[in-house]
Design brief:
This protein has 16 helices and 13 strands. It is α/β, with parallel strands linked by helices. Helix 3 (about 55-70) packs parallel to helix 5 (about 95-110) and helix 14 (about 340-355) packs parallel to helix 15. The protein binds 6-O-phosphono-beta-D-galactopyranose (BGP).
Length: about 450
């Protein structure tokens, strides 16, 4: 199957993250992360981060599957607490670094380009206990120290860095930042948006360091891009859809690419009475440290309608509500199938940022799945991949500069929100929430489909 618009040197890949794929949660000096702590709260009812699918031990086998698939890139994350177990050590944990040296070397030996996320939901828990994590400005130094260490160790081998995964998700689901959920909503948001601001500063510093030290390297955030559509053609629905999308997704991209916080974003915080602590030269930090690539995590569209009788002085989350489109197919977890929305979203990114290179760092379809005689017939995932690749190709044909596509996920892993039953992988792992079994890997039908896509489009 050949697609319009996708060039030969395109990086066809797939994606995972450390806390979801590795397990080995305290091996060789690894410290605990907030992702570990959160998952332990649900250990009674679903799989936690302790073992997951054991990528920590089975990485070589998994890379041979990647090779078989024909992958040209692999987007994964380095576990921050494997490198700095508490986050505040002066020296990194050598054994933690060694694991990633081995992984990266093996990828390179197999001609698979590593696309490395620095922080995917797993801040060391030590930093949260010590000073409240990202809510405190101190976290900036600890992140910069961690990033510098990654540049020292891997800088010559890595061409593509993604700094923070889905910062907007962290702000909304701020339990993931270690913010107590017992606080009144306003206080939670006060802390979450302060954390958001500190993450912007930290990344700007890291972009600058990276671009000075490695001028040919690309670095940027991995954005949760929720392409937001109005439920009707009424201007108020269109306005609130735009307001939400700008606030949630484009503010993140604007700060990374333009080095400025959009006025619309600040206006919304004012409505909540949120007061961000800033320092004199922050503006300059943001201006001087810019991303030169965008990671875009894209799953589905969100359809919104304006809340009747809401006032413009209300916060954006109060002025709009999500609705379902009965004509679209939804996963069990409420994520729709809307591939044209993907092309539309990519075009919007181009409208904002011109020909900035884009890595599609996530894109995927979840299902509850069972092995039948060693096979998984994941037909809807095949349709999802086919239609989204087709729409991405059309967007590229329209001029959007996508350089890599990394569906979520390469292999079945622990879902961020829903345990082991919600599967996204091209490779099935024979385990469930409570039985580890042999952790045997099986290629799903989508694996064979994607393998042909890569072969035919090279
Ligand atoms: C993104 C995260 C991933 C991943 C995915 C699916 O937000 O970056 O880590 O898990 O969403 O989410 P879930 O696993 O909750 O279905």
């Amino acid at each position: 199957m050949k697609y319009i618009g996708i060039p030969k040197n395109f990086l066809w890949g797939a994606s995972t993250s450390a806390f979801q794929v590795e397990g080995g949660y305290k091996e060789n000096g690894k410290g605990l992360s907030i992702a570990d702590i959160r998952s332990f709260r649900n250990s009674e009812t679903r799989l936690d981060t302790k073992e997951t699918v054991d990528g920590y031990h089975l990485w070589k086998k998994d890379i041979s599957l990647m090779k078989d698939l024909g992958m040209k890139s692999y987007r994964f994350s380095i576990s921050w607490p494997r490198v700095f177990p508490n986050g505040d050590e002066e020296k990194p944990n050598k054994e933690g670094l060694q694991y990633y040296h081995n992984l990266i070397n093996e990828l390179k030996r197999n001609n698979i380009e590593p696309i490395v996320t620095m922080y995917h939901f797993d801040q060391p828990y030590g930093l949260i206990k010590k000073y409240g994590g990202w809510v405190s400005r101190e976290s900036i130094n600890d992140f910069v120290k961690y990033a510098k260490c990654l540049f020292d160790e891997f800088g010559n081998d890595i061409k593509y860095w993604l700094t923070i995964n889905e910062q907007a998700v962290l702000v909304v689901a701020n339990d993931m930042l270690g913010i107590s959920q017992d606080l009144p909503i306003k206080e939670k948001f006060q802390k979450a948006f302060q954390a958001n601001y500190n993450m912007w500063l930290a990344q700007a510093i890291v972009y600058k360091i990276c671009r000075e030290r490695f001028p040919d390297t690309k670095i940027g955030p991995a954005i949760s891009y929720i392409t937001t559509l109005p439920a009707s053609k009424k201007s108020i629905d269109m306005m609130e859809a735009k307001n939400f999308e700008d606030f949630y997704s484009f503010s993140q991209m604007d700060v990374a690419i333009h080095g400025e916080i959009p006025k619309q974003f600040t206006n919304e915080l004012d409505k909540l009475g949120i007061d961000i602590k800033t320092e004199l030269n922050d503006k300059e930090i943001l201006q001087k440290g810019r991303a030169n690539i965008l990671g875009v995590n894209w799953y589905c569209t969100t359809i919104v309608e304006a809340v009747k009788d809401s006032k413009q002085s209300d916060f954006i989350f109060k002025r709009m509500k999500r609705v379902q489109d009965k004509n679209l197919l939804y996963t069990e977890w409420g994520w729709n199938f809307d591939p044209v929305g993907f092309r539309y979203g990519l075009r919007q990114v181009m409208d904002h940022y011109g020909n900035i290179p884009i890595i599609v760092s996530e894109c995927g379809w979840s299902e509850k799945e069972k092995l039948e005689n060693g096979k998984v017939h994941d037909l809807q995932r095949i349709k999802y991949l086919n239609d989204h690749i087709e729409q991405m190709g059309l967007a590229m044909n329209d001029g959007v500069n996508v350089i890599s596509f990394n569906p979520w996920s390469f292999i079945d892993i622990l879902s961020a929100g829903d345990g082991m039953e919600k599967r996204y992988g091209l490779v099935f792992v024979d385990r469930n929430n409570f039985e580890k079994k042999q952790l045997k890997r099986y290629k799903k039908d989508s694996f064979f489909f994607y393998k042909n896509v890569i072969k035919d489009n090279n």
